Amino acid sequence: MSEQKTNDSRRQLLKNIGLTVAAGAVVAGTTTAVQASTTGTEKKDPKIKKGYHETQHIRDYYNTL
Predict the structure, then answer these.
(1) What Å distances lie between residue 39 and 21, 43, 44, CA to CA?
(2) Model pLDDT for residues 7-64, shown as the tens digit of each residue
(3) Which of 29, 30, 54, 61 lies in the 20 to 30 Å Cα band around 47?
(4) The pTM is what?
């Protein structure tokens, strides 16, 4: 009788582990989707230039070469 009880508790443990993993995957997918949707809605500042900028600091470094 106790052997059957042990098997039931093992099965319940495996079910709970499976449910926990599935719930974790759903949460991870949801947070990734939320992050992806919020990054596209940010307004870009036209004052910020992208790419290479030669500043005085960089010119000073080039002069030491």
Answers:
(1) 27, 9, 11
(2) 788 888 888 998 898 888 887 777 666 666 555 555 666 777 778 888 899 999 999 9
(3) 61
(4) 0.38
Query: Which tokens go with 39?
Result: 């990054």
Residues 15, 12: Cα–Cα separation, whole Å: 5
Per the document, the length of the chain is: 65
- DSSP class of residue 1 equals -
Q: Which residue has the tokens 């449910």?
A: 19
Q: Locate tokens 């009880």: which residue?
A: 5
